[in-house]
């Protein structure tokens, strides 16, 4: 939606151009974006308006593709670790001929490095999202009302929402520092190398949550931008479906309410995987859990219920 609202150049998503770099993730993201933006009169109108877009737009396939490649590698590492014995000592053999292995299998170097990788990966993806958000609220580059305020001059629109996203990006940057590099010495010099796999995993979770919030704020801003477009040109069917999905629950923002509730709704929408499926190539999954209902109406209601439940928890706390 941000790409479309900002009049991105479709050449950045060209399959032949993207094929110059060998990356399955890059190719997949490019294909998904072409499918999502297919039929956009807004983007067709902007073809050739400039030589190239800012990096926050034209590197989406490259950054998101690299992230997908990195996460697939992490998946392989985690699966190998889950299939491994990581005790110390390990007792094997038979009752008559036992064998004890007192070595270093309890050291979680693989998981530590993998979790640090997730942290850096998601920090970069969310930082890119915040840069797109900044362009949406900046009238100098967006062609939209300042800060996406319906009435400029006396209303702040999404100004503070962008502050929030920038703050979360800064926090991600701080905690993305690799935990595996902390080191330390314990056990009377016997354990003189520590990998800190658990802290690496915990802070990776924090960054993933922060990133979902940043993407949620971008979703809100992009939806607002759709409503404030100065043109009546048609949007892509997919982006229009996504805009409708949000607007079915949240009205256009007129500085008439705190944005906290809207942000919580969008966060739940991102974290629960509720956005409508892309019309193009998808990675097949066996996931059938309750957090992703197959019926669109049920999905939306689930998202709203999740957001409301979270708001109640926050207010009660």
Number of strands: 2
What general form does the structure show?
Answer: elongated
Going across the biggest sheet, name each strand in turn: 1-2
CATH architectural label:
Up-down Bundle
How much β-strand is present in the residues?
A: under 5%
Q: What summary fits the major beta sheet?
A: 2 strands, antiparallel
Overall pLDDT metric: 88
Radius of gyration, Cα only, in angstroms? 23 Å
Structure in words:
This protein has helices spanning 2-5, 15-18, 24-37, 41-46, 55-58, 60-82, 109-137, 139-142, 159-175, 197-228, 237-247, 260-271, 296-316; strands at residues 90-93, 98-101. Helix 7 runs parallel beside helix 10, helix 9 (159-175) packs antiparallel against helix 10 and helix 10 (197-228) packs across helix 11 (237-247). The protein is elongated. The model is unreliable at 281-317 (pLDDT under 50). The chain has a single domain (2-85, 107-184, 192-281, 289-316), classed as Up-down Bundle (Fumarase C, Chain A, domain 2). By secondary structure, it is mainly alpha-helical. A two-stranded antiparallel ribbon has the order 1-2.
Describe the structure in brief.
The protein has 317 residues and is an all-alpha fold. It has helices at 2-5, 15-18, 24-37, 41-46, 55-58, 60-82, 109-137, 139-142, 159-175, 197-228, 237-247, 260-271, 296-316; strands at residues 90-93, 98-101. The protein has one domain (2-85, 107-184, 192-281, 289-316): Fumarase/aspartase (Central domain) (Fumarase C, Chain A, domain 2, Up-down Bundle).
